[in-house]
From TrEMBL:
SUPFAM superfamilies: SpoIIaa-like. It comes from Anaeromassilibacillus senegalensis. Gene3D superfamilies: STAS domain. InterPro entries: Anti-sigma_ant, STAS_dom, STAS_dom_sf. This is Anti-sigma factor antagonist. NCBIfam families: ant_ant_sig. It comes from the Bacteria. Belongs to the anti-sigma-factor antagonist family. Residues 1-111 form the STAS domain.
């Protein structure tokens, strides 16, 4: 499991990959929070396109980042949820707190 963080135009994107369980969620939380607290983005985008599995720790990860972003008036966007994870997020009620989007990735070489 890993995370790649990209800051661009006030948006911090966390590209998540692998599986999110309670061991991994703690590491992700520390890395994302550290960068977010230093940069104070207006939007934190959690991109789940590379995540194959998530238990309730993933819901906690999203909820905690939502609370953090609220402290300085920011928001959280959840992007590219695989179908199984989309169901978990919907059942948790996070759609009421965060924007949930499906983004089309641009393919290099296409015009």
């Amino acid at each position: 499991m890993g995370v790649r963080l990209i800051l661009k135009d006030g948006c911090l994107t966390a590209l998540l990959s692998g599986e999110i369980d309670h061991h991994v969620a703690r590491e992700l939380r520390e890395e994302i929070d550290g960068t977010a607290m230093r940069t104070r983005p207006s939007v934190l985008k959690l991109d789940f396109s590379g995540v194959q599995f998530m238990d309730s720790s993933g819901i906690g990860l999203i909820m905690g980042r939502y609370k953090l972003m609220q402290t300085w008036g920011g928001s959280v966007t959840i992007a590219n949820l695989p179908p199984k994870l989309e169901k978990i997020v919907s059942l948790s009620g996070l759609r009421d707190l965060c924007s949930v989007v499906k983004e089309v990735k641009e393919v290099e070489g296409e015009e």
